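for the writeup, i need someone to sanity check this before i put it in the appendix. the sequnce is what the collaborator sent (i think, or maybe the updated version? ugh). structure was predicted straight from it, no edits. if anything looks off just tell me and ill rerun, i have time this weekend
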Amino acid sequence: MFISRPIQRIKFAGALSLNLTGKLTPLRSIQSYSTTATLNLKPLNSRISECMRNGFIEEAQNLFDEMPQRNTVTYNAMVRGYFQNGFFREGVGLFNVMPERDIFSYNTMIAGLMEFGDINGAREIFEKMSFRDVVSWNSMISGYISNGLINEALGVFTGMVSKDVVSWNLLMVGLVGVGKVDLAEEFFNEMGTRDIASWTTMISGFASAGRIVEARGLFEDMPVRDVRAWNTMIAGYIENGCIQIAEVLFQKMPQCDLRSWNEMIDGLVRNQRIQDAIKLFAEMPQKCRRSWNSIVFGLIRTGLIREAHAFLEKSPFSDTVSWTNLMVGYFETGDVDTAVCIFELMPARDATAWNVIIFGLGENDHGEEGLKYFVKMKEEGPFPDEATFTSVLTICSDLPTLQLGRQIHAQVTKTGFNYFVAVSNAMVTLYARCGNTNPALLLFSSMTSRDVISWNSVICGLAHNGNGVEAIEMFEKMRSTDIKPNQITFIGVLSACSHAGLVDQGKYYFDFMKYDCCLEPTSEHYTCIVDLLGRFGLIDEAMSFLGEMEANGVEVPASVWGAVLGACRIHKNIQVGKIAGERILEMNPYDSGVYMILAEMYLSNGKRDDAERVWARMREKGVKKQPGCSWIEVNGSGHVFLSGDSSHPQFSRACGDVLGLLHRGMDNRNSTSNVASYQEIQVLIDECSELV
């Protein structure tokens, strides 16, 4: 039986217990062990390796279990296969029970542990090895680089007694990857022996640093060039905007492979030369779906979605990726119906296609439909992955529906996807938006790895729920880490200052964002700071911020003027309030809320004539007051109520319950005070009765 669900690669923060007391078998012992055995194990060992390479885990396990004899090579094949397919725990467990180990066993473990982020475990094995070969050292260098520890990789490289060309190449690749091209060049110049990969790595490094002339110089100096070197040089020119030179070089290539054609087609697409890309695709000796999908994606990215759709209908090269990209295009333009129709007509759907339909519906305010597709995916589609759970949790937080969110949380924990930072971030956001800050903080504190979105989720969540001081404290904790705040972080911080009434701190953080973090304020930041100043009557100072916005070339949006209008309403500043209201109505003449606020301000200041003029203007434009809306979740089902609407099937019962609560509340109030009069109670009863 084969594994039907996709293998999930999960990076573990903590190491499993390693048994390092096993005997290290010398290489000659392995040879004698395998030759003296009565059973020729080589075909079976090869079969296990083949099964593991193709992802047939259970078949490999069955072969291993049924073998009457096993040697060290057998165990090595199984351990390596487990790591290749993401079965970290199984690989470590089998390594621990190996009767004998050779140097390949330890090298395999170092590579596997490094791949899954268990750096300490890999280091422990390396340090306790009685004998190390160059592969052992190279595995440590490669592992440190893949985990972003370039300085540690440099340390291992420096400590090597004997280095091969792979050692040098690994280090140079790592240095180029973190932008240390000058240091990589120094090592390149120190190399005694270079291979094609050495030259190609430096060409790629120079190109990525914009030093395309030096890259071409190295390319010309190469004693031997293979197709990879040509492809790297072409990709460098494309990356640096020299598409014409890349075309000339492509024509000069002695031999092209599939990547050569793909690089050129991708380059032409990125430069919006779609017609040329189509012509080049037609010249390809062997057509490639990847190239075709690149062209289709180029059409979609330039807004030619209908044209891309027509292309796909006629093309024999269309596949799941093509149709999925087309769905993305339609969702981005808000054409939800067409996107859903494409999904329903797709002959085959992978996890990405399901994720796109769920995410796209959520992004286009069709979250309920997105959740239905999630249920459908679980019933008939592929196994949900981290992107699926992230999208579904985001929908739950947008609706919001806490009950379903909790169920998804349980599934996430059960399947182990809570190790993915994006999924944990979505769970923190869900609980915070639903007002459950304690579970949100608990989840945040339990995260083994955090990014800027993690911090933003908890800071904005605390601010959203009125916990301004706690949000500021969390931001100060963030500042003590290596993670840099972004613009969204400061929206949460400024909002927190507004909720907590921290005027001076709000102004400090605004300047800190602008001058220390070099982040340009957006309209959302100005809205927050204007709201903060306005709440405490500093309307003149708020208006000066608006002047600063205009001076910086930032258009003052309706949201900022809305904050000013709200402040004027609280502090009864009719003069500035009128200016703010008129500016909003210039941008949105059908905003009923602005008319109502202006009329209310005039009435509260005894200017009934001005209020009536606002109402007349409202009637003239045909603007109607938007009804109030509220919703409640009962037994996992959402119920929406609109002001003045009695169509809900449970309306009469709900109204009766509300009336009962009103009566009891009024009775209790009358028993302690005579403030509430009979007439006021009667008005409430009459209004509710009219609704029924």
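Residues 110 and 577 are 68 Å apart (CA to CA). The radius of gyration is 33 Å.
thx in advance!!
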